[in-house]
Amino acid sequence: MFVLHSLIYCCLIVLSMIPVGLVNPRMMLHSYPKDIQDVVPPRTLKERQQAIIFAIPIIMIMIGYPAAVSLYYRPDESYFMYYFVVMWAMMFVFNVFDLLILDWLMFCYINPKFIIIEGTEGHSGYKNYRFHFIGFLKGIFITAVISAMVAGLLSLIGAFM
What we know:
By secondary structure, the chain is mainly alpha-helical. The protein is about 70% helix and about 0% strand. It has helices at about 1-25, 35, 45-70, 80-110, 130-160. Helix 1 (about 1-25) runs antiparallel to helix 3, helix 1 (about 1-25) crosses helix 4 (about 80-110) and helix 3 packs across helix 5 (about 130-160). The radius of gyration is 17 Å and the shape is elongated. The mean pLDDT is about 95.
C-alpha cells in the first residue's frame, strides 16, 4: 500500500503545482537558480500574493496526505516513530521524484516553455543540476523536521482516538 499511496501523493502534488507554471512561473521564482533570479526583476506584490494563494493547497497536500495515510493505517496504539517514519518516507519519495523527474528531467533536460521565465530563454541556469541536488539535500532535512512536528501532533490525536 505504501507504493500506491506514494504514487498517489506524487500525482496529487504535481497536479496541484501545474496551475502555477501555467498561470505564471514567476510565482516560483524563489525556487529557480540564483543566476536566473538575478536576470529578472523581483516578484511583484501581485505575484507574491498569487504565490501564497497557490501554495496553500500544495502545502495542504504535502502535509495532509501523508498525515491522513498515517492515521488511517495507524497501529492500535499511537506511536510517534510510526507516524514519523510514514510521514518522512512519503515525503522522501516525493523529494526523490521531484529531483529526478521534475527538476533534472523536466527543468534541466526537457526545459518546457511553461517553466521558462520571459527574458531567460536559453539561460545556463536551466541546466544547473547541482542547484537541484542541493535543494534535494535540504529537502531531506526539512521534511524530517516537518515529519517530526506532524508525528508529534498525530501521536497526541491518536492517543484520543
